[in-house]
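re the bet — no i am not wrong, look at it urself. input seq straight from the record:
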Amino acid sequence: MAATNKSGVSSPSHKDEDQKETGFFNRPRRGGKSFWDWLDLIAKLAIPVVVVGATIAFGILQAHFAQQQHDTDQQRALDQQRYKRT
């Protein structure tokens, strides 16, 4: 059996491989989540919220335009009735 001489040879350091990047945005927060994890969650939730908000806004806008059209139609009908009577 051959004996290995470890004098002068250091063991490989794995601290760069195992250690996550440190910094303000990479520190774990509540629940062990970093800033980037929370930002990713917010971004994923923002898409459905924007779609729902736009749907509601367009529905309200459409209802407003329909009411305007109804009012205009009624006014024209009243004007036509007045014109025919005279």
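see?? The CA atoms of residues 37 and 64 lie 41 Å apart. told u. also The two ends are 124 Å apart (CA to CA). so pay up
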